[in-house]
Amino acid sequence: MKHPTLLVLAFCTALAVCGADPAPAPAPAPTPDPAARQAALQKIADGITYRKGDTVLGKNLAKISVPEQFRYLDAKDTGTVLSSLWGNPKSDDILGAIVPVGFDPIDGGSWIVVINYVEDGHVKDDDAASIDYTKLLSKMQDEAREGSKERVKQGYGSVELVGWAKPPRYDAANHKLYWAKELRFGGEKGDTLNYNIRMLGRGGVLVLNAVAGIDQLPQVEAATPAILSMVNFQEGQRYADFKPSTDKVATYGLAALVAGGIAAKTGLLKLIWVAIIAGKKFIIIAALALARYFKNILAWIRGRQSKEAEALRAPAETPPTSPPTTQA
Q1: Which residue segment(s) compose the domain that 160 sits in?
Q2: Residue-wise DSSP of 119-153
Q3: How far is CA 102 from the centre of its chain?
Q4: Is residue 180 within 8 Å of residue 164, measured between CB atoms?
C-alpha cells in the first residue's frame, strides 16, 4: 500500500580530516517494521470523527450541510489527516474538509476537499463575461515554465501546466467559480489533478481545493454539484450583503482567482496547494519564484483589462467623420 509522504530536498555532506583516523561510520538506522508502521497509522486514523448534518464554519461565517454520501472533518481532524498521516506541514488556517463516505486516510486512492477562507475583501465579478480562458491558460503555462526553472535551480523536480482538466465555470447566480488544472511533475508517474472551487462572499472567498489524482477527476467532478450546494455563507456574510460604503473591496477579480493569485493567501505561502499531487504530497516552491509568478500573471491581467476598457471608450471619444444625416 502506498503511504503519503512530504517531498523534501535532501542534502549530503562529506568530511575528511587530514592526518587523523577516520571517524567510525554511524550505525545504520533500524528499518521500520511495516506492520508496526501500519498499526500506528491505523490507530491515528481510528481517532478521526466523521460528521454529517449541519455545521457552522468559522465565526458564523458559513454553514455546511452534509448529505448522506459525504462526511465533514473539523479543523483538528483535517490537520490529523494532512499532517499526522500524510506528513504535510501543519496549518492553522484550515476550517475543515469534505470527504466521501468510506474515506480511508491511509489508502492512497482516497480524495479529500480541504476548506480555507481568505478575507481579502469583496471580490467583484465584473470581468466574468470577458475573461478569455484560452489566453489566460497560455499565459499561465508560460509563467509555469519559468517558475519550473526556478524549482529545478532549488533542487526540486520540474513542473508543467498541461492544460485545463475542466475549463473554468462561473455560477453568477450563486457567485461560485470552479475549474480544474492538469499538472505534470518530473519523476512522477501520471499527471496530477488540481481541482479548485471558489465561493465569493461579502468580505472574502471560501477556498475549496481537492487533494486527488488525475484518475479521480470523474469522481471529484461528479461530487462537485453536491459540494457546491452543501457549503454556503451565513446571512450577513453573503455576496449580496456587501455594503459599498463600508466594506473593503479586493484588489483582484475572477481572472486572478483562476490564475492563482489567491493561493498564497491560504495559509501556505512557501508550501502551496497548487502542487498537491496524487501521492498526497505538498510540493515546496521557492517564495521568490512564487511571488514572481503571481506578479507577472496579475500584471498581464490588469494590462489586458486596461486595453479592453480603452477599446470600449474609443468609439465615444472619436469625433464623427461627417455631419449626421436625417431621414425625411
Answers
A1: 44-309
A2: -S-B---TTTTT--HHHHHHHHHHHHHHHHHHHHH
A3: 24
A4: yes
At 244 the pLDDT is 95
pLDDT digits (tens, 9 = 90+) for 180-239: 988 887 767 778 788 899 999 999 999 998 888 888 899 999 999 999 999 999 999 999
Could you tell me the CA-to-CA distances from 264 to 68, 122, 226, 259, 271 in Å, in that order?
33, 17, 27, 12, 9
The answer to whether the Cα torsion of 190, 276, 123, 100 is positive or negative is: positive
2 belongs to a structural domain? no
Backbone φ and ψ for 164, nearest 5 degrees, come out as: -75, 125
Evaluate whether residue 325 is within a structural domain: no
Q: How many domains does the chain have?
A: 1
Long-range contacts of 288-291 (CB under 8 A, 24+ apart): 288/150, 289/147, 289/150, 289/151, 289/154, 290/147, 290/264, 291/264
Q: Residue 323: is its pLDDT beyond 70? A: no
Helix (H, G, I), strand (E, B) or coil at 328: coil
Asked if residue 322 belongs to a domain, the reply is no
Q: DSSP letters along 256-313, please?
A: HHHHTTTGGGSS-SSB-GGG--TT--PPB--HHHHHHHHHHHHHHHHHHHHHHHHHHH
What's the half-sphere exposure (Cβ side, CA atoms, 13 Å) at 269? 5
Contact between 96 and 82 under an 8 Å Cβ cutoff? The reply is no
pLDDT tens for 17-54 read: 233 444 555 666 566 678 888 888 899 999 999 999 99
Beta pairing partners, 197: 178, 208
Is 254 a member of any domain?
Answer: yes
SS3 category, 77: helix
CA-CA distances (angstroms) from residue 239 to 122, 132, 156, 225, 242? 8, 24, 40, 19, 6
The per-residue pLDDT of the chain, averaged, comes to 75
Residue 281 has pLDDT above 70, yes or no: no
With a threshold of 0.90, does the pTM exceed it? no
Any idea what DSSP says for residue 46? H
Plot region of 184 (φ>0 → left; ψ -120 to 50 → alpha; else → beta): beta
pLDDT of residue 140: 86
